[in-house]
Structures
1.
Amino acid sequence: MLPSLNKKLSFIIKTAFFTTALLAVLLYLFTPKPDITQPNAYSTAFYDSSDKLLRLNLAADDRYRLWTPIDKIPLSVQQATLLYEDQDFYEHIGIDFIALINAFYTSYIKRSHRVGASTITMQVARLHFGMNTHVIFGKVEQILRALQIERHYSKNQILEAYFNLAPYGSNIEGVGAASLIYFKKPAIDLNLPESLLLSLIPQNPTKRNPIKKSAKLVLLETRKKLFTRWLEKYPDDKHWLAAMQLPIKVYASSDLPFEAPHFIDNLQSEYPHLKPGEYKTSIDLNLQNLLQRHARNYINRRHRDGLSNTSAILLNYKTMEVVAELGSVDFFNNDISGQVNGVRAKRSPGSTLKPFIYALAIDEGLIHPLTLVKDAPKRFGGYTPENYDQQFLGPISATESLVLSRNVPAVNLMYRLQKVGLYDLLVAADIKKLQPKEFYGLALALGGSEVTMLELVKLYAMLANLGVYKDEVILKKDATVINENNPNNQNNHIKQLISPEAAYLTLQMLSENSAVDEISFQKERRQSYPVYWKTGTSFAFRDAWSVGIVGPYVLATWVGNFSGEGHPSFIGRQAAAPLFFEIIRSLDSYGLIKGNIKPGGLNITEVDICSTTGDLPNVHCPKTEKGLFIPGKSPIKVSDVHREIYIDKVSGLRACQYVESTTTKAVYEFWPSDLVRLFKQAGIVKRQPPPYLDSCLINDTSTRGSAPSITSPSNLISYTIRASKLKQEGLPFSAITDTDSRILYWFVDNSFVGKVERDTPFFWHPQVGEFDVRVVDNLGRSASVSMRVKLVQ
C-alpha cells in the first residue's frame, strides 16, 4: 500500500505542478495587465497650510485607506516589512517555490498545521482580487495572479501596492492611513520602533490590532524579536534598544482630528468631484484655533446678554487665502443649528457696504474725504431714510459720515452716482443670488440685499488690494487638485473694480473709526498699526457685523441667530466689534500684525484743508488740517465761507467801506442758507454777520457775497398741471442764499409776484406758457431760471 500511495501522491503533485505551470504560462502570455495601483475606494485627507491633519475621511467602503506613493514610505518600514514577511522579495518571481511546496505538504498532506507561503506579490494578489486563499483553488489562483502581477509591474510598484492595501487592524488599510491614525504623523516621519510595529500587523490584523490591550503585549514581544533580527543586518541602530522596551502608545481612529469642520464640509460640497487623495488647504490651524477659542470665550461671557452664536473668518488679502473659518461657535450644538455655516450663509450686511458707496463717489468726483455732506432729513421719492439714533448731525465731513454710519448721506451719495452704482459693483464682484436692481432701490445702501460673510470680506480685500478684486484661495498652490472645477483657479476672476486712489482714500477714512471697549488699546492701535473697519446692524436687529482690515488680514465677525430671530443686543458696535478687536489684540500678541497699506505711485496729493469747510483754505480760515484728494477728479476749491467784513464801531452794524477811525475788521462764516438751517436743526449755532448800515447802497451790497441759487423751479424743466387744479395748486419757488440774505423777492417775466423770508418757499399760482423766474435778495443779488407750464385734462 505504501508504494502505491507514494505513486499516487507523486502523480497528484506532478499533475498539480504541470497544470499550474501551464495555467501560469497562459496567464503570463495572454491576460491583460491588472490595475493594482488604484483600488475602488480611497480616503481623502485634508491638511492645514503647515501639513497638520484637519480631517481624514472614510473611503466609500467605510475603510481608512490613504494612497501613499513609495517615495513617501520610509525605508525603515519597507525593510522591516520585507525582513518579517518576504526576505527574498527582490529575488523571486512572485512565488517562493520551496516555501510553497513545504507549505502544501505541511498543510494538505501532513495536515499537522496550516503554514503560509505567501510572498508580498501573492498578498497583493489576494488583497486586490479578494480571493479566498484558504481553499486550494483560491491558492492556485493567487499563485497565477502573482505571476501575472510580476510580469506587468516592477518590484517597487508591487511593494507600493502592498503598502496601500495591507490591513493594519480594524478598518484601517495601508501604511499611510495607519501612520496617521496610530501615530498622528505621515508615514514618511515614522521612526524605527513605529516602523517595526506596523510591519507586524498585516500578518494577523485582527489579533495584532494595536488598539486592543490584549494585542499590545504580544506586539511588544514580537517587535523585540524582530528588532534582534534587524540588528543583525543594521547594527548601527542599536541605540533604539531602550525605545523597543517602552510600552506601545498608539491612537485610535476615534482620536482623529475634526478641525475647521465648516470649511472642510464646504470644500467637499462645493467641489464634489475632488478625487480621493491628500490636499493641503489654506487653513492655518493655529489661527483657526485662535478664532475658535476667542469665539467660545466671548459667547460664554456674553450669553447673559442674549448672544448665543457667532461666525468669523480671517482672510489674508495678499494671498487671498482663507486662513481661518468659523461657521458657528459650536459645530455640534443643535440648539443653535451649529452645523450651519454662517460664513457661507446669506445675511443682510447692514451698513457694512457703505464704504463702497463712498469709494464709488470718490471715483466719480463727488466727494473727497473731507467734503461736507448733509446729514439731514431728506425724501427720495417714497423713501425717507433715518439714522439709527433718530438724530441728524447737520453738515459733517464725508469721513465723519462714514465712520459714524450716517444713513442719509450714504443714501444721497448712492442716489447721485451716475457711472457705476453700488448694485453694479456687487454684480461685478460676483455676489450671488442678487434680485433685479429695481427690487432694492436706495435701500441697498443700508443692507437691503443679502451677502455672505465670505463675499463681504472679499469686497474689503478688494479695498486692501487697491481696487483689485480677486477670488479666495482655499487650497494651497502646491496641492494636487485633479478636478475639472479647480478650486485654485483664481486667475479667472481678477478685476479692477475701483481705482487705486479711491480705494486708498476710502481706507484712510475707515482708519478714523475708533476702536471699541478698551481705551488703552485704542491708543496703542493708533500708534502702531491702523485698523480699517466698519460695523453693521441689519433691520430688526437680526445681524450684528464687524469687518475690517488689519495687517495682512481681512477679519469679519458676525453675531446673531441662524433662525433669523432678532434681539436688541445684536448691534454691530456693541455685539460684534468687541470680539473683532479681541481677536485683533490676540493676533498682535503673536506678532502677526505687521505692515501698513502705503502704496507708491498713486495720483494723490496731500494739501492743507480748511477744517471747517472741507475746501482749500483762504487767508481767513482759522484752522487747517492735512487732507488727501485726487488731482483732476476730487471736487475741491478755495473756500469762501470765512470772509472779512467791516463793522461800524458805534452801531455794530456792517459797514460798506473800511474807514480806520470808524470801522473795525472781523471774520464771519458765510454759509449757504440750507446749511445754516441744518446747523440750527443739529443744535449748532453759527454766528450771523450783522445787517448793513442803512446808508449802504444796493450797488455796494449786490456785488459782495454769493447770489441766490434757485432750487425750485428747476431750470428748463416743464411742469404739468391738471386743468381742474390750475387755480388751487401752487408751484413752490425756493432758493439757497448767502448767510447775510434776509428777504427774497420773486419775479415772473419781470413782474413782481411776492416776497418771503429766507428759507421760506413762495407758492406761485401757475399759468400756461413759458416763463423766466428771477429771485433777488434784500442785498440786490439775483438769479434766474426758465420754465414751462403745461396743462393736462
2.
Amino acid sequence: KDDDAQPVSLSAAPNPVAEGNSVTVTASLSAPLSSSVTIPLVLTAGTAEAGDYGALASITIAAGQTTATGTISTTEDADYDDETFTVALGTLPASVVAGSPSAVEVRIEDDDEPTPVSLSAAPNPVAEGNSVTVTASLSAPLSSSVTIPLVLTAGTAEAGDYGALASITIAAGQTTATGTISTTEDADYDDETFTVALGTLPASVTAGSPSSVEVRIEDDDEPPPPVVEDDDEPPPVIEDDEEPPPPVSLSVEPTSVAEGNSVTVTASLSAPLSSSVTIPLVLTAGTAEAGDYGTLASITIAAEQTTATGTISTTEDADHDDETFTAALGTLPAPLAAGSPSAVEVRIEDNDTPGIALSTSSLHIRGCGLVAYTIRLLSQPKANVIVTVESDARGVATASPARVVFTAENWNRDRRVTVTPGAGGRASITHWVSSSDPSYDTVRLTRTLRVTVDEAVPASVVAPWQVRFVRSHTAHVLDGIAGRIVAEPKAGAWASQPTGSSRPGGDEDSPASLPVAGTLHRTYGTGTFGADGWRGAAVPGSRSIAVREALAGSSFALTGEKAPDGSVWSVWGRGSWSRFRGRENMLALDGEAWTATVDVDRRRGRSQMGLALSHSLGEGEYGGGTCSGGIESSLTSVVPHAALQVSDRLTLWGALGYGWGAVTFKPDTGFALKADTTFTMAATGMRGGLLAPAENGPALALVSDAMWMRTRSERVPGLAASDSSVTRLRFGLEGSWRVALEGGGHVIPKLEVGARHDGGDAETGAGVELGGGLAWSDPALNLSLDVKGRTLLAHEDGAFENRGVAAGLVFDPSPATERGPSLTLRSSWGGRAEGGLDALFAPAPLKDRIDDEAEARWTTEAAYGLPAFGGRFTGSPHAGFGFSDSAHDYTLGWRLAPADGVNAPDLSFGLKATRRENDRAATEHTVEFKVRTRW
C-alpha cells in the first residue's frame, strides 16, 4: 500500500572522510511514497569540535523515489587527531518511521602528520664554567606554540658539573628555539660529559634526528708544578708512571629492533682491568613511552676482560609508530672515564599493520554439510574491532556469526565462521571492519572470501533415498499382481476397508496373529502398520489411521461374467503401505511409501494379461553428520503384465514397467529442491505345486522370481543427478506330509527353505532361511495344536540374526460352524515364526536384524459363537488377555460372519477394544473396526 508509513534509514559515504572534504548523507525509504517527504536530521558532536564540520538540517525525498542525499562539509584544521560526529534522524513526519540504521557516525580522518623535532648544542665541547646553548629545531613551523621536553643524563660528569634545562618552547610560526645549560668550574683535571635528549613529546611533533646530543665539558685546570730544592743540584725528574683511566664506551645491536624482541647493549673497555668493574647505565625515553622497553641498570665487566653485555626487552603494543629510547653511561666509578660513544639510541620498529586475515581466500563445498574458516587481526587494536560478515548470495551460502567482535585482549585469537551451503552456485562473503580505533576503521581493510557450492544435496543423498522409495513402489505393484495371478476370480464385486486403529503383526480376526512383544515387524503390502510411529507418533506400537493410511489395506475387485469365448475381465485395486530404513556410510534414511494400484486384466484359458496403473507417495527424513532434512517423493507407473499356466501345477509370469515422478529435498538449512525422476522395471517369476496329494501323503510347492529396477533423477541447481538400480533373486520350497489319524484327526509336519540375493545400490547380500512346523488335530478331543519355527541359517553379514518359535493350542467343539465355546492359548518367542513361503518372500530383505533378545509373549482368548439374524450369521463375543515381561493386553470384542451352508450375504464384521498397559510407555486404548463384503 503506497501511503503506509515506510521505514527510512541513513547512510554516509565516504566514511571515514578526509578532513577538508565533504561527506554525502543518503536517506533511503523501503518503498516509494506518493508524495515528497522531508526527513529532518540532527547533527551531534562526538570528539569533533565546533567548526570541524558543517550543517545539514534535512533531506527531501521526492514522490515516487526511495532515496535522496545531502552533503556536510568538514574543515581542514591544525589538530592531529581524528574526530567524529553523528548524523541521526530527527522528529519524523507521520508518513515515515525510523528504520535501521537510524543514525550513522562519521569519522573525520586527520591528514596532519606530526612535525619532526631535532636537537643540537653549541659550543660543544664547552669550557668548564661556561654555558652551552641547546637548540630545538622543527622541520616546519606550527600554527601554535609547542613545548619540547628535555632529559639530561650524566655521562662522566658528576652531580653539580652542569645545570638544568627541563624544556624548550618553540613559538607559533617559528621553527627553532633555544635554552642554555650552565657548567661548573671545579677542581678536577678531567674532561666530563653529559647527554641532552628529547623527552616524551606532544602529539604535534615526533622525534627527528638527532634526538639526543652529548656535551663535553673541557677542563681548564693546569696540574701544579713539581717542587724543586735549592741545593745547586739540578731538579729531579718526576716520572709519571700512572696510565690515564681507561675509557668505557657503549654499543647496541641491533640499533633498530622489531617490537617484542630484545637488544643487546655492549660495554667496552679500551684495556682490561685487574678486577671486575660495574658500569652503571641510564635509560631515557625518547618517543617511547613507559612500558615500551625493559630495564638494564648496569653491566659488569669481569677482571681481565674488556667487554660485557646486557639485554633490554621491548614490548609488543598497540601503537602503530616507531619509538626510540637512549641507553647512556651513568656515573662511572674510578678509575673509569667515559669513552665515545657514551650513549646509544635504540629505535623500536613497529610491526603492527592494521588489518584482518582470513585462513583461506576461497572455499569449495562439495555436497551438503557445513564448512568453517577463521578470522584474526594482524595487530593489537586500541579499541574493540567489529567484523561484519555478509554474503551477497544467501541462497547459495550463508555465514554465521554475522558479527565478530575482537577486543584488545583477545585480538590475536582465531575466530571461527561457519558457512552453510544452499543451492549450488557462487557467492562472495565480504568482511567489513569498523572500530573507534582509527587505524581499524577504514574501507581498505575489507576482505572477501569466494565460495563455490556444487550441490546442496549431493548424489550420495539423492540416490540412497530414491532407490529405496522406488523399490518399495515396485514391491507394492508386484505383490498386487502376484496376488491376482493365484486368485480365483468370482463374478461380482468385493471390497475391504479397515478403519479405526490397527496393530502390527497380522489379522486382527485371529488371536493367533497377535504381535510378538519386543520384536521388530515390518509388514509390506498388507495394509498393516509398522511397530513404531512415524515422525513422533504418540504411542509406540499403534497408529491412528490418516487418509493415506486408510488406503493401505483396502482393496476391491469387480469381476464380470465369463464371455462366450471363455474370457473373464476384472478390474481390481488395492492400497499398500511400507516403511523403509537405510544407512550408507554416515547417511541414515527413514521413510514411508503409500501406493494405490488399479489394474484391468483379462483371463482366458490358461493365460492372463493385464495393465496396472500405480501411484505412490513417499515422505521421510535423511541425516548424517551435518547433512539432514526432509524428503517427499511421488511416482506414477504403468506396468503391463502377463501370466501363463504351463500346467496344472506351474505358472509363469512376467511384468515390465515404466514410470515418472518427482523428488523434493528440504534441507534443514536452505531451500527446497525439486527434480523430476524416471523409473524402469522388469520382473519374471514362477510358482506352483510340484506335488499336491488329494488327501494323505507328501506335498511340495515352489516359488521363484527375479526383479531388476532402475531409477534416475535429473540434476537441478543445488540437487545432484542420480542413477541407481536394484536386483533381487528369490527361491523357495515348502514341503509337508499329511498323515491321517484314527478318529478323523491328522498330523502334518512341514519344512520350508528359502534363499534370497539382493544386489545393486541399496541393501545387498545373500542369505538362506529355514522354517518348519507341526500341525496336529484330534476332533474327538476338540483340540488342535500348531507349532512353528524359523531361523536364518546363514547370511553374508554374520551380524544378522532372525529366529522365532510359536505354539498354539485351540479348544473348539465345533470348528466347522464357529458356534459354541472356544478357547485359544498361544505363546511365541523371538521373531516371526509363521507365514510359509509368503513370509520367506516378504518384500523386506531376508536379513532382518534383531538387536535385543525378544521377550516371550503369551495370549489367550475365549469366545462363544451364537446364531444371529435368523441363523444366517454367527456372532461371537470374545475376550482376551495377553502378557509379556513389559506389557499386558486386555481385549473385548464381537465378530459377525456368515454361517456355513445358508444363503447369507458375504459380509463380515468385527469390532474390538484393547487396553495395553506398558512398562515402557503410557497406557493406551485402541478400538478396531473391520468390515468385509462381496457382492
3.
Amino acid sequence: MGKDFATGLQAKLDYIELLVQEQNFSQALAEVKEQQTLKVSFASQLEKGRFLYLSALTLYHLGRYSEALAEAKAGYDIFRFSSDNKSIGEVQHLLGSIYQAQGDFSKAETELRDATAAFRRIEDQLGMANCFNKLANLYFVKSDYHQAIDYLKKALVATQASGDVKTKSRILGNLGRIYTLVGEIHKAEENLKLNLEANLKFNDEINTSRAYLALGYVYLQKRDLSVAESYFEKARNLIEKNNLPRELAIYHEYSGELAFIKGEFLEAEVHYQKVLEIAEKISPKGDLFNQGQRLLAELKLVQGEYSRALKAASSSLEVSLQLEDQLEQGAVYRIKAQIYDALREEAKAKKFLSGALETFKEIKNNFELGKTYLMAGELKCIDNFARLKFLSKAEDLFGELKLNYFLGSTYLKLATHLYQQQEESKALLFLQEAEKIFQEGKYESDLKAALYLKNQIERKISQDKTKKAIQKYTFENIVTSNPKIKEILEITKQFKDTDLSILLEGETGVGKDLVAQTIHYQGKRASHKFVAVNCAAIPETLLENQLFGYQKGAYTGADKDKPGLIELADGGTFYLDEIAESPLSIQVKLLRVLETKEVYRLGDNEPRKVDVRFIASTNREISQAIAQGKFREDLYYRLSGLNLKLPPLRERKEDIPLLIAYFLEEAGLDLGFLENKDIYQGFLEYDWPGNIRELENEIKKTLVLIDWKDDKVFNILQEKLKNLTKKNSKAVSLAEKVEEFEKNLILEALRATAGVKSRAARLLNIPESTLRHKVEAYQLEEE
C-alpha cells in the first residue's frame, strides 16, 4: 500500500506540474492546498522538496510573493545537500524571480547566477537559457540595457542549442520590450510580432496577454492609439481569464497612459490608482508601485496640483533609488524639473533637469534623453537660447531613431518657440515639416495644433505685412514734384474708398504697380488682401486655373478643391497687371465676375460670391487693342470706372533728382555730394525708355560693381548714360553694339577694382590674360 500511495503522490505532483506548465495556476494551487489539507507523507525528502517547489512556483505566478518565498526557501534547504543539480537550479531560478519581484535585486542576481552554474554542471542548455533570460530581465529593470542585451544574446545561443522554440519566442519578446524603451520602435514591433505569433501558435494565453500588452505599448509610443487600445483590451480579457495580477497592473498602467495622452485625465487617474492598489498587495516597494507613483505625479503636474505631484514623484523616486532603477529615476527627475519650473523654483528645476539628462546619458537611453530635451524646450527657468539648443538636440536624436511622432512634436515646439521670438518665417518652415509628419501618421490632435499655430502665424505675418504696407504705400511717399502726377494722386485719394474699378495706363516702369498698391493700402480694404497677377506671365492654359480655381476632379491631377486668386482676394483688391495681354476667353469670364460679383471654379456649376475691387493696368494703347479685336470693349468700360494715364519719366524729368536721392538713400549712401546740381546733367539728357524702373536698376547695378559709396557712382553712371545717349542717336551694327557693351563692362570692372586687372578679371569671370588682351585691343589703358 505504501508503494501505491507513493505512486499516487508522484502522479499528483506530475499533474500539478502539468497545470503550471499550462499556466492554470488557480487549479494548480487548489491541488497543492488539497495535498496540504490531507497532510500527506512524502516518500523522500526530494519528493517533499519538489512539492514545495511546485507550491512556490504556483504562488509566484499568482503574485503571492511572500508565501512563494517561504515555500521556495524550504524547498531549497532540502535540495541544497543533494546532487540533484536540475532541482537546485530550478529552485534558485525561482528564488531569483521572487526576489526580483520584491525589488531585492542583489539577492535576485546571486540566486540567478548560482542557478546558471547548477544548470551548467549538467549541461542543461534550456535551464541556462532561462537563467540568462531572467538575468537580462533583472538588468532591464535596472536600466542597464546593454548588459540585458548581452544576456539575451547568451540566452538565444543556449536556446538554439536546446531547440526550444517557446523559450526562443519569450526571449524575442523580451528583446522587443527593451527596444521599446530605448526608442527603437521598428525593431521592437518586429520582435514582438514574432513573439505574439509563436504564443498564439502554442495557445499560450499568459504570454499572449503579455505580448498584447507589449505590442500595445509600442503602438502607444507610435501614437497609433486605436491599435494600442485594441491590443490592451485583448490582453485584459486573457489577464482576467487567467487571474494575472501583475499583468493586470501593467494593463492599467498602459491604459492610464493612453487615457492621459487622449486628455481623459479622470479615467487616467482611475487606472493609476488601480496600479497602486495591485502593487500594494503584491509588492509595496516594487517596480509597479514606483511606476504608478511616477505616472500619478505626471498627471497631477498637468492638472496643476503641484503639491500632490511632488508627493507622488518623491514616493516614486525613493523606491526607484532602492531598486536601482535608473530609467525611472531619470523619468522622475524630469517630472520634478517640470514641477519646480511651474512653482518658479528655478534652482531646483535646473538641478533636476541636469539630473535627468545625466541619468539618461549614463544609461545611454537616447529615447528618454530626447524626450527630456523636448521637455526642456518648454521650461521657463532657462533662457531662449538654451531652449532652442535643447530642442535642436531632441530633433537630432529623434531623427536618428526615426521616431516620426516625436520628431513632429519637436518641430511643433521649435515652431512655437520661434514664433514667440517673432521669427515667423522660420517657424513656418518647422511647421511645414510637423504638418507633413502629422498628416502621414494621422496624428489628428497634433495636426490640429500645428494647423492652429500655422493659422496664427500666417495671420500675424499678414497683419505685419499689411501694417508695413500701409506705412510704405502712402500718397505722401510717392516721390514726385510733377504737376500731372500730383493731379493723378489727388484724384486717386478721392476714389480710394470706393468700389469703383480703376484702369491704370502707361509705359513699363512708370509706377502703375506702386499706384495700385497705394490705392489699396490707403483705402477701406487695406486690412484685406492685395492679390496681383501678371496676365502676360502666365500661359493661357494655366491662367484660368489661377484666376478662378477648380473643383476636385475637374481634370486629371485635380485631387482637391482649390480656390482661385480672385476668391483669395475676397474683401480686398485684385490687381490685373498687363490686362491687355489676357486672352479673349479669359476676358469673357472676367467680365462676368465684374458684372455679377460671382466666380465659377473650373468643373463647378455653383457660383461663389466675391467682394473684390478690381484695379487693372496695361502698357499698351488700349484703344488700339480694342480696334484690333484683341481686347473687349465692354470689359474696358467695366474696368475703367476711373481711367488714369501715368506719364513716362522723360515727361517728368524734374522728378529724376528726387528719385536718384531716394534710391541712394535706400542704399544707405551719404547724400552730401548731391548738392552739386551739375552732376544730374547726364541723367536729364537721357530719355529713360525703361522709365523709373530703368533708373533704379542702373543705380543698383552700379552699386554692386563698386566698393565705395560716394560720387564715383555718378561718374560711372554718367559715362554709361553718355554711351547710351550716343547709341540712341545713331544706328550701329550688332558688332559695334557688342564691342561697345564689352568696353563699358570692362571699364566698369576696372573702376570698381581701382584698375587692378587680376581683381577685375575675377569680377568679370574671365582669365586675366583675356582681360589684358581686350584692354590693349580697345586701348583702355589710358582711360
4.
Amino acid sequence: MRQSTPILVEPGLNGSMQTLRPKAPSSHPVLLVAAATAVMVLLMGVAQAQSPNTVVEGVPVTVPGTQSSPWSISNNLMVGNTLGGTLIIESGGQVNGTTARVGSDNVTGTVTVRDANSVWANTGAISIGVGSSGFGFLNILNGGSVSNTTAEVGVNAGGTGTVTVSGSGSQWANSQTLAVGWYGNGTVTIDNGGAVSAPVIWMGVVPGAQGTLTLSGTAGNRGVLTTGLLAKGLGNGQTGDATLNLDGGILRASADRASFLAAQADYRFGFAAGDVVIGTGGAFIDSNGHAIGISAALGGSGGLTKLGAGTLTLSGANTYAGGTTISDGVLVANTTSLRGPVLNNAVLVFNQPVDGTFSGNISGSGSLKKDGAGALTLAGINTYTGGTQVNGGTLVIAAPDALGSGPVAFGGGVLRFDYTGSLDRPITVSPGGFTVDTNGNTQTMSAPLAGSDPFTKVGSGSLNLTGNSPLTGPTSVQAGRLAVNGSLANSTITVQNGATLGGNGTIGGLVVQNGGFAAPGNSIGTLTVAGNVAFGAGSVYQVEINAAGQSDRIVASGMATISGGTVQVLAENGNYAAATNYTILTAGAGVTGRFANVTSNLAFLTPSLSNDSSNVTLTMTRNQTGFAGVALTRNQGFTANATERLGVGQPVYDALLSTTATEARAGFDLLSGEAHAQAVSVAIGESALVREAILGHLRGPLLTPPGASIAAAFSADLPGSKSATVMPAPRREARYALWGEALGGQANTNADGNAAGLSRRTGGAILGADMLLFNSGPGSLRVGVAGGYTQSRFDLDARLSSGRLESGHAALYAGSRFGAFRLDAGLSLSWSESDIRRQVAIRGFGDLLRSQRPGSTAQAFAELGYGFTWQGLALEPFAQLALIRVSTEAGLEQGGAAALRLVSSEQNPGFTTLGLRAEAQILETPLFARGMVGWRHGFGDLTPQALTAFATGIAPARVFAAPIDRDGFAAEAGLDWRATQTTTLGLTYAASLGERTRDHALKGRIDMRF
C-alpha cells in the first residue's frame, strides 16, 4: 500500500473499525499505529488489517503491482465513510476482501481497478452507492478485474451507484445476483471490450428506484454482458424504473431461459414497453448454445444481430428499426416481433400461431422455417438461398419474388399462392403431407414433388404440374383444377366433389368421386394412367371434341371401372358431320360398367355412348330439333325458320348447327336484321319533330298584350328617346311571315323481351314561309310552305348494329282563326336514306354487313284549340291528330353469307294528343313563358317491322322492333322574347315519356312577321 502522506490507523469505538487517514507530512511512506490495540502492521511492504471495518477515506489510496503480496482485508471494506474515499488498484495490484461498501451518506466513494492483472477479489457482496445521498463509483478499466458474490448498484433511496467496465480484458464477475437500482439510482456501463457476468441481473427493483444498464461497443471491441436472466421489480406489481440500452455490445446467455428478457405481460419480473432500447450501434444477442426467449418489446433505431449456437425466440411487439441479422444458431420470431430487412445466414423460424404478414426483405444463405397454426404471408423481395421448411399452418406467397431459393420441404401445412405465376423449387413431402392452395390464381410448379406422404390441391384456381415427380404418396384434388402435364406416375389421384383433374401427363391411378370432374388435356388432349381408373356415381367425365373427330381421352394400363356418372360433351367451333365417333376411354385391362348419362352443349347434335371390352366410344349425331325449337322470341323464331331453310353446306346453317341453345338464340338475334325495323321507329320519331315545328309556328303567341309606348319598347330605334317603362309591342296580324327552327333531340327505348333497346340522337332544321290570305272580322286564314333536313343516328348495342337516317322534308300547311277557336293543319312528305351497319358473331362464324336504301314518310296532321284568358294567363285546351305512313323500298345488304335481302314495306301509325297550353308575360318585359301538358295516344301500326330474307335463301322472315308506346305523357316548357314588333326568338324544351320510351328535344326558333 502506497500513500503520499503518513497514515494513522486508529481503533474505532469498541474496536469497531480501522480508519486510514492522513495526519502529518512525510518524505517517505510510513504507517503509524496510534494505540496498542491497533493491529495494522507493515511487514516487508505488506499492509494487513483486521477489524470489523476497514475504511478508506481522505486522499486516494493506491495499491500498485509492486507490492510483494496482495492486500488482504478480512473484514468489511468501506471506501468513503465520513469523508470521501478513493481506492485505486493499478499496474497489477491486488486486493483480496470479503465484503465492501463504496460511498456513504453525503459522501462519495470511488474504486478504480485498472490495467492488466489488477484484481479486486471479494468473497462476499459489494455495494456501490450506499446511503440516502451517497455516491459510489466502481471503474474497471483497461484489463482490470473485480469479483464478488452479490452486487448492488444504487442501494439506498437517494443513493447513486455507477459502474463502468471498459477496455479489453476488463471484467466484473458476479457469482450471484447483480442489482442495478435497488432502492436508489444505479447505472452500469459496459463498453469497449469490457465484460460483466452475473447469473441474474435485477433492475429498478423497488418503486422509486432507477436502474440503467448500457451495453455498447464497436466491431472487434464490444462490451459483453453474460447472464441467465434479466429481471425488473419486486414481482408483485411494484417496480422501479429500468432502462436497458443495447448499443453495440453483446448480451450473452449463460443458461436456458424462456423468460431471459421478458415482458411484464409474460413474466411478473418483466420489462415494460420502452424499457429496452436498441441504439444505432445495434443489439448483439448471443444465445451461446442455450435456448432463450425475449418477449420484452425492443424499440429504438438500431438493428438486432443473433450470434452463437442455440435458439433465440423473439415474441414481443418489437419496433426496432434497424433490421435483423442472423449469424448463427436459430432465431424464432413472428410477424410482430421480427423487424426487417433480415440478413439470414443461419436459421429463421416463423412461429406463427395467428395470421400475419411479413413485408421485409429476407436475404442471406440461411433457411426459413414456418411453424404454428396461423398463416404467414411473405410479401417482401426475398433472396435467401437455404430453402424453406413448412411444418404447420399456411405459408402464403404474395408475389413471385416472395419465396427464397433452395428446396422446399413440407411436414404438414399449406402453401398458398396469392399471385399468378410459376414456381421452380423442388418440393419434398414429409410426414404430415403437403397442401397447395391456389386461392383463385393460376400457378405452375415445374420442379418435381418427392416423398411418400399425401399431396393435396385446395382452393379455386388452377395448379399446373410440369415436372416428373417421384412422389409415391396419394394425391387429392379437393377444389379448383389440377393439371398434370408432367408425371405423377407413382401417385393415385382422387378427384373430390367440385374439383377437376386435367392435363396431358401421366398419373399412377385415377378415382373420380361424386361431383368430381375428369377433364383430360388443356384443350383437347390425352391423360395417361399407369394403373386403374374408377368413375363413381355422380362423377363427371368432361370431354372436349371438335368437328375433325378429335376428342379428350383417357388411356389407362389397368382396368376402368365405371359405376355411373355423366359424360359431359363440350364441343368446339366447327362444321360437324351428321354423325362422328370419338374414342374417349381406353383401358388395357378392360372396361367394366357404364356411364349413366351423357350431355352435350350442342343444341342440334345428340351424344350417345357405346362400350366394347376395352373402349368407351362417343357418337355425335344430328338430332330432330329444329332451329326454331330453341327460339324464345318471335324474332328468333322467324329467323330460325329462315336459317334452317338454308340447309347443310350454307355457312350460317353450319355455324348454328354447332352451337349451344344459348348461342343459337344469340345468333338468331344477330342474324335477324332487327336494325332495319328500328329504322322505321326512327323515321316515325323524326316525323313528330317536323309536325311540331310547323304547328308551333302556326299557333303563334297565345297572349297579345295591349299597346304600349313604342319608344320605350324599341328605344334603339329612336336615339335619345328614354322611358322608364318597357312594354311589348302591340301584336297585329301580319300579312307575311318567315320562320325557322333548329332542333336536337335524344331518345331511348327499352327492350321489350323480343327486340333490343334503341338509343337515338337527332339534329336538324326546318324553315318556312306563309302569308295571310284573308283577315275578315273574327276570322282569318294563313297558308304556307316549309322544308328542312334532319339526321338521326341510332344504336342497338345488343344486336351489334348501328345506323344513320338522313331525311329531307317538304310541307304545306294552313292556319285559320274563328274568334277564340284555332284550327291548324298540314301535309308533309319526307325522303330518307338509311345507312345501317351490322356485325354477326356466332361460334365459328363472323360477318360484317352494310346496307343503304331509300324510304319515305308521309303524314297529315291537324290541331284544334280554344283560347281564353284567366287572371293574366292565356290558356288553350287543344286536340291534335296525326296520320303517318312510312314506306321502305327494297334493298340488299353487302357482306358475306349472313347478308339479307330487304323487302319493301309500308306501316301506318297514328297519334292523338289532348292537352292544355298556357302562356304568361314575365312582369312588364317582352319575355313570355309558356308551357304544355298533354296525353298522347297511339294507334295503328305501333310495332315497327321489316321483312327480310337471306340473300342466298328464299324464306322470308319478319322482324319487329320494340313497340312504340301506345300511351304517354307529353310536356313542353319554353321562353319567347319579342325582340321587335316583327321578330320573336324562342327556346323550347319538349319531352315525351312512355312505358318504354323517353324522348327529349331542345328547339330554338325565330319568327319574323311583316
